[in-house]
Design a protein that fits this description.
Blueprint (H helix, E strand, L loop, with lengths): L5 E11 L12 E13 L13 H13 L4 E2 L13 H15 L5 E10 L3 E5 L5
Amino acid sequence: MDRFTVRVQARFESAHFLRSYRGPAEPLHGHSYLVEAELAAASGALDADNLAVDFVVARRELEGLAKMMDYRCINEVPPFTELNPSAENIAEWFHGRLTEVLRGEKAIVRAITLWEGPVNSVVFRPGER
């Protein structure tokens, strides 16, 4: 088990609608989103600078992904042009994209928490059922 967990956050404002919500599509509506990434060093150890994962790099990458959705309708952002933009699917998307961009940093994305406003959230952890 890794001794250190690094968490970084980003915020974005977006609108979306579920194409099928218990039947018909729901109305377009917006949320103030907060996305949090839980990260660890792929090696499980600290690097030469005594860091598990660099906060600055991880936050910059997460904020870059959030900007792709900021002040947009998520339904118009691929892959959500086809994929229903549920909180679950958005969290999994962040996980996949952040995993790609942090590969060179030798970081593992353990979990993504996506908040739709202040009280509702979903956590995506790869490989869990």
